[in-house]
Amino acid sequence: MPSGPFSSWGNVIKDKYEIVPLSSRQSPFPSSATHSSVLPYGNGRSYGDSCLNTGAALIPTRSLDHFISMDASQGIVTCEAGTLLDEILRLAVPLNWFVPVTPGTRFVTLGGAIANDVHGKNHHRAGTLGRHILKFELLRSDGQRLICSPTENTEWFNATVGGLGLTGIITWASLQLRRIANPAMQVETIRFGNLDEFLALQTESDRDFEYTVSWVDCLGTGSQLGRGLFQRANHAAESVRVPPAKSRELAVPVMPPFSLINAASLRLFNTVYYHRPQARHSVQRFETFFYPLDGISNWNRLYGPRGMYQYQCVIPMAAGRDATAALLNTISRSGQGSFLAVLKTFGNLPSPGLLSFPREGVTLALDFPNRGASLESLFVELDAIVHSCGGRLYPAKDGRMPGKLFRDGFARWQEFTRFIDPRCSSSFWRRVMEGA
Amino acid sequence: MKKILIIGAGSAIAEATARLFAARGDGLFLVGRKADVLTSMCADLKVRGAGAVGMHVMDANDFGAHEGMLVDAEQSLGGLDVVVMAHGTLSDQKKCEDSVELTLQELSTNGISFAALLTRIASRFEQRKAGTIVVISSVAGDRGRQSNYVYGSAKALVTAFTSGLRQRLYKSGVTVVTIKPGFVDTPMTAAFPKGPLWAKPQKIAAGIVGAVDRSATVLYLPGFWRLIMLIIRSIPEKIFRKLSL
Question: Which CATH number fits domain A184-407: 3.90.1110.10, 3.40.50.1000, 3.30.70.2520, 2.120.10.30?
């Protein structure tokens, strides 16, 4: 029985799993030698335990990375589910097409992106990725191969989009791409002093800018609470000169013995980053704008051997301002937090998945070095704020939320359970179902 | 557009290499044992830009099928400029030690079938006075070790055979490249714990394409294996026999 070490991006759980290989998309549903449950594992960029299956088996899907077709006139790419968005971009961008929705890293598989119904900086315009999936094949453990689309096997489509890999194996998918004139982005960066300024900028920008996102100084207090940098951008027009691609890639080659991200380094970074001289208008390559951290491979190692947690919540719009202020206050008082604190509002386009995370509201995402109990007590405080206003946490980022918070936040979870493949399970799912 | 035949196309190294050639618009003819794998690869390489694609299902141990495959490849692509030989199996050393049959089969797959194919390919290219033959051998062929000497001795055959062939075909302007990869992180080695010596197939593939472009001779991939194997080869046998390598 082959087994191997796998981890998620947060590096908190390091474990060995039985490996159940899948040699091609035509292969039958693979079974585990020990008859334990299985879970498809893409590129391991989920942060917590939603891509892990402790004590059981994983089906690595990166070997399913073949393109099936590319319609360059309609912008429809069909490929196997283990293909990375990076590979799709390498194919599509030279043909003047772009992925319709992208998360903050291009090193995720298409199957994983569907299973987490990922969102991007254009959520207010485009909604989640699931809205742009034309169809996919779902391989079930009973041997069925279901072609799922918004009009065919619709309920399976809606369960599998955002379904965390629990409904079976996505073997291939068709994705509708978006036209671009070139690889450049026209970006505007605006400093904001507090949360109200952020919300005003967001309202003002949603109409004219396809992409908006903000970095927030998670250590700001009092009048500086919620200060940050607002970025808004559009794909560049044809006439814009495209900056050259960077060839040099940075890397964190080894795991440092302790987290390099601590109170002192964090305060220094945030202050410098907030005040750094910054041209308001710039032209950037899409890689720089969408994937600043992809330029530093294994940046998660900066958090040291204990790893990190990410906390990403969405707060319904009605409670948005006050609850976000309360979250930021709590984090800032704790002195814990990260370089990468992201604030954004989601638009009102419905997400297709039963378990899709995005809903209209304010979303806040932060990384935290794993400090054990002191971090968990901060999370408990944050959970209370999120729970009290009917918000929820993002399963793709989560490694610790209480089951009740999940079940209260994702109202359709019971409906979802009907679609879970009897052979599939995950550490995340068993955890959030505890006490249900 | 180069016309390239890849034998053992389904291997991770071969596939990564084929993708690099495809992105340059080259024509590719794939040979392997599994039809569904080759069919998927053909569609994929076409999307990635291959000028032409074709496939042929064959087991390299079926020596009688070699000639027909070569004819098919030449007809499909309209000639051949480059042949990449990448087929093989990861021999289970322990099982081989208890089975003559398995040992001979592994020697055939990883060694003798190369000699059979190379004999046919060499005479074609020699007549035409052009072409490049890239053969994937292994660092394992540099010295037999108890952990994998069946595979290693098959690869020693490949290394020695291509060395002689390189001399013979030099006069005819035909290039023979011997590639010696070290540890490669492929689906076949998924269960091994990976250390810093492990390389991705994409990295090996880039080395192979570079070797074709500049008509290299013997190439360790990644390059540091040349040094490692120099050390391993220079250990006196009296000491070597005591080691647990």
Answer: 3.30.70.2520
